[in-house]
Specification:
The complex is a heterodimer of chains A (319) and B (122). With 319 residues, chain A is mostly helical. Helices cover 71% and strands 5% of the residues of chain A. Chain B is 61% helix and 13% strand. The chains are: A mainly alpha (319), B alpha+beta (122).
């Protein structure tokens, strides 16, 4: 099999089965930041593999590459061939299309979504400026509502918003824990990770890995922010705040696994789950991260590896 | 313009606090208590707010009377609706502290927490 074929095999396997694998590795919630990295590496290795494979099929003479000038010359030659119609191989044409369309599709989706969200955030922020009062001591915007709500508005001018009802229900140290949690979101830029994962899932719908990655990243950012708050305020205030704010009086919008996700967060905080809470990843996760990082490279090198193996085992030694 | 935004917020505060439609002069007289401010500045701010849809106005004689399009509570409710919307994209816009769970699940969690803290304190 050619390098491109190996790459496509890898990509297909990861796209279909990778979600289950990464989910199993990250389900304990012991290293949320590395877990997010695992999802990102898995997703990106698939996108990269498909793009590179398509490129290799479209431009067959490109490997081995001597230098940039050689690469550009070969690409130009291939484009010229296809444009002039002298190349009658439909596979190459299709491959060229894929090689261009895949990155283009993702980039446009990403930028469109980013722009849309920036606008929505700004509009929301403008209303917030008028309607909410600012608590200078806590550094948060207070929403004049009795409901229990806390959220942050990330971006260029980040804001943490807490409803008056939440401020009155929680104790001061619980409020501090909630604020630290939201500030963790802002500081670590979680909205970008979610945006990237969601855009990937929307650019290439129904790919199981991308759908799982979007959901996985969404849950993991909460664990990351919980860890950030725990570092400063300890575990119990945050756990109690989670309970106190858990939806009493707020109309249930029936988010399916939300109860389980909350239970996992509270379990983590109380030390019932995740024995490795100091942040050292298990060997399985470490191995998986390395494998995902070099996976496409290995797939690409497979033909050379197999060729070398063949030479070693079948060629007779000189007499 | 940061300063302007603050002024807009202050003017809205006064409009919401008033019991009926207000004129520019009335708002400016209230603001004069705290700060030196020109009539034309207040006029510009309220005209801006009208253009942005925060205020509605109708003519009385030669001047306009302004009042808020919606109350502060209605705006707060709208903000909450936006933040509470259960869409997958929302986490990229707002990141909520907690997703909604049902009262039954909440009760179960409460019991679990009580059991755990009792276990830890032993």
């Amino acid at each position: 099999m050619s390098g491109a074929a190996w790459l496509l095999t890898y990509a297909l396997t990861m796209a279909l089965l990778g979600g289950r694998l990464v989910r199993r590795l990250t389900s304990s919630g012991s290293c949320p930041r590395l877990s997010i990295l695992a999802w990102q590496l898995a997703s990106w290795s698939v996108v990269l593999s498909v793009s590179v494979a398509a490129f290799l099929i479209a431009v067959p003479g490109v490997v081995p590459i001597d230098n940039l000038a050689h690469l550009l010359r070969v690409c130009w030659g291939a484009l010229h061939e296809m444009a002039s119609g002298s190349s009658s191989d439909p596979t190459r044409l299709l491959a060229a299309l894929v090689a261009v369309a895949v990155p283009l599709r993702y980039t446009t989706c990403l930028f469109a979504a980013a722009a849309r969200m920036r606008v929505q955030r700004r509009l929301h922020g403008d209303i917030l400026l008028m309607v909410a009062s600012h608590d200078d001591q806590l550094g948060v915007s207070v929403l004049p509502s009795d409901s229990l709500l806390a959220y942050c508005l990330p971006g260029r001018r980040p804001r943490v918003v807490i409803s008056r009802g939440a401020l009155e229900t929680l104790s001061p140290e619980q409020v501090a824990a909630v604020i630290a949690h939201e500030r963790g979101h802002v500081r670590q830029g979680h909205h970008l990770a979610v945006l990237a994962a969601r855009s990937l899932a929307r650019s290439f719908p129904r790919v199981p890995l991308f759908v799982s990655a979007a959901a996985g990243v969404r849950q993991l950012i909460e664990l990351c922010a919980d860890d950030a708050a725990v570092r400063v305020h300890g575990r119990l205030p945050l756990a109690r705040a989670l309970l106190a704010l858990s939806g009493i009086g707020v109309p249930s919008t029936a988010l399916g696994g939300a109860g389980e996700a909350t239970a996992l967060r509270i379990d983590r905080l109380l030390g019932a789950a995740a024995p490795r809470r100091r942040g050292r990843p298990g060997w399985a996760l470490s191995l998986a991260l390395i494998a995902l990082g070099v996976g496409p490279g290995i797939a690409l090198a497979m033909p050379a590896v197999l060729e070398g193996w063949h030479v070693l085992t079948y060629c007779p030694l000189p007499a | 313009m940061r300063g302007f935004g603050e002024l807009e917020a202050v003017v809205m505060d006064h409009v919401w606090a008033a019991s009926g439609p207000v004129s520019v002069r009335a708002v400016r007289d209230e603001l004069q208590v705290r700060r030196v401010i020109a009539y034309t500045t207040v006029l510009t701010v309220m005209d801006n707010l009208h253009r942005k849809g925060w205020l509605v106005r109708h003519r009385r004689g030669r001047a306009f009377l302004y009042e808020a399009t919606w109350s502060r509570e209605e705006y707060a409710a709208r903000l909450m609706r936006e933040a509470l919307q259960a869409s997958d994209d929302q986490a990229a816009i707002f990141v909520r502290f907690l997703d909604d769970i049902s009262p039954e699940e909440s009760e179960a969690l409460r019991l679990a927490l009580r059991r755990r803290s009792r276990k830890r304190s032993r």
